[in-house]
Amino acid sequence: MTYIAGSYTTKFGELWERDLRSLGIEAIEGALKDANIELKDIDALYVANMAASRLSGQDHIGSLIASELGIDVPAYHIESACASGGVAVRLGHLDILSGESKNILVLGVEKMTDISNSGVTAALSGASDEEWEAFYGATFPSLYAMIAREHMRKFGTTREQLALCSVKNHAFGSKNPHAQFPFEITTEQVLDASPVADPLGLLDCSPISDGASAIVLSKEKKSDVKIISSAQAQDTISLHKRNDITELTATVKAANKAFHSAGLNRNNIDIVELHDCFSIAEILAYEDLGFAKKGEGGKLIESGKTGPGGSLPVNTSGGLKACGHPVGATGVKQIAELASQLSGSAGARQISKNLKYGLAHNVGGSGGTAVVHILAKVG
Amino acid sequence: MTYIAGSYTTKFGELWERDLRSLGIEAIEGALKDANIELKDIDALYVANMAASRLSGQDHIGSLIASELGIDVPAYHIESACASGGVAVRLGHLDILSGESKNILVLGVEKMTDISNSGVTAALSGASDEEWEAFYGATFPSLYAMIAREHMRKFGTTREQLALCSVKNHAFGSKNPHAQFPFEITTEQVLDASPVADPLGLLDCSPISDGASAIVLSKEKKSDVKIISSAQAQDTISLHKRNDITELTATVKAANKAFHSAGLNRNNIDIVELHDCFSIAEILAYEDLGFAKKGEGGKLIESGKTGPGGSLPVNTSGGLKACGHPVGATGVKQIAELASQLSGSAGARQISKNLKYGLAHNVGGSGGTAVVHILAKVG
């Protein structure tokens, strides 16, 4: 059994005075303190990071962070594009299950602002198929814009429904002091924002962010929150190889495995952190995770059920859109947010004290990788 | 229990007509055939790769290879610089132990020749401390040259002893059809080669290589070769933080853990594949793995014990020097070579039919990471 013994997330944002090391160490020290576990009791370190190789010229990130901490236990660098964090949590969980480790640190960290915007866009395109997508100029906003257009054509999803996802995530994010954009926005602002890749505008896109998040996984019951299922699935890395681009099949498969393994139904879930890299991604996730029928994700966001006061709050952290998206950190932050909410320690953004099951959903690229975790509060 | 069900290594070399995908797929198809396991029975894929991000603009390598294979099971990209392969084998082994998977593919792959030599040198320097080593111009040959100089000063290790490591590895490599340099060289040739970073010359350095190696790990007994211990340790990523640069302390710690866990002594080991990225690295490894006392690695290579006909053959594949060093592939190839030797299927380079225990040693950077595996032939 794997418990989330503690967690800590740094401020997300354009943190010009911070580097990758200092963000990573702040998150780790915070998570250890929250877990009340000493560094000497840690058996392994998993570091999720996508792009330090291209953004900072630094590979071997596991060694870098272990070196900075002064520890000699195994340190691993896990990279699965924007799903790096969720995958690292999953591998840490398997490490606990294997009997190799009792206490594990999982760190997600990304430093994205010390390079030009075009440099970051190029680095992020490494998550797509370099030969058949990136090389021909397809950036991530353009890939998701194609998905959005097809979803609108096929199901009648509206521009306003897309905008509502961003509005809802900012509403939640406005209560999160760690969020990059801790303020509300209106539908009109989203619709009037500069176009990025039609129909997606600037406020449909998650930002470029610096930040880190760390959790401590423990075999022993050091908290009331545990991982009850972990599932991962893959799909083609490129969009053109798929029969239908209105579904992220990897999400469907990972979610089905996770629910089956947990023995739960969709309506058992009390709170969700999902991968809203673009507004359309949240609509897809509603459907692919099974919270809405295919094509009805737009109606779900309109219903208010996933927003403040709704019965299925989604992205109480603010999501990738409002909290920020330091790529390697995101999947870890999702687990940290759920652990805080389930344990009742989410402060001003605490949804309820009676949450039992939370689901985290992390996507790599345009759906080549999807990871789903279900957490439970235990008595 | 984890068995090495099968393995396959592609030709290593300057393979101008091959790309990362085709090398990876060739290795995987070969390993599945060798293991007599079908792709549909594989539960997870671990891909070791260091530098595709910078060398090919491609991240998300787990997704890329899964996509190419058309599989939807979890696919992971593991990066630990030149130790990526050994670390991926270790994580695959933990996955088996966790009970999550029955059959696992571990692929190591690197495509290094489609970029300038200076581009490759810069990419490789990402394994060191970018801020405190690479930024100031320290390349890997220069870091290991500093280690060599200090080892020579402190212990009287000679230039000729360094050269003998390369001569020995080429002698073994001359029998390996997959080797990048399948021919013998002389001590004179090593001593006369162009200087790279004094005292290391061109023939003291492992080459830039393309290649891939894959193994299948199985929970069930599908072969006579199993992993009996897996250990990993970390040290500072940068040399200047160490008290003594004549020892790779991560190797010492990983080796001690591996022997303790296996319940074996050094003299139980029949065959070794170790990390000879530079000739001095082989001398260090002799000492740090415990096959020679500190400072006496030079004497061990002189004795002939680790060469053809010796009682402790080291690097029968040709090592990194003669077989080649496609970075992500190396740690997997080491395990593949030991599995072939232990199972008696190494063909022209088969050392003996009576090998029982083999040790693999894989290093990341200048010793920031070290991984040691011990394999055993079972009845």
From TrEMBL, chains A, B:
Protein name per Swiss-Prot or TrEMBL: Thiolase domain-containing protein
Residues annotated as domain Thiolase N-terminal: 3-220
Gene3D superfamilies (alphabetical): 3.40.47.10
A Pfam match: Thiolase_C_1
Thiolase C-terminal domain segment(s): 231-376
Taxon lineage: Bacteria, Candidatus Dojkabacteria
Any GO MF annotation of the entry: acyltransferase activity, transferring groups other than amino-acyl groups
Domain of life: Bacteria
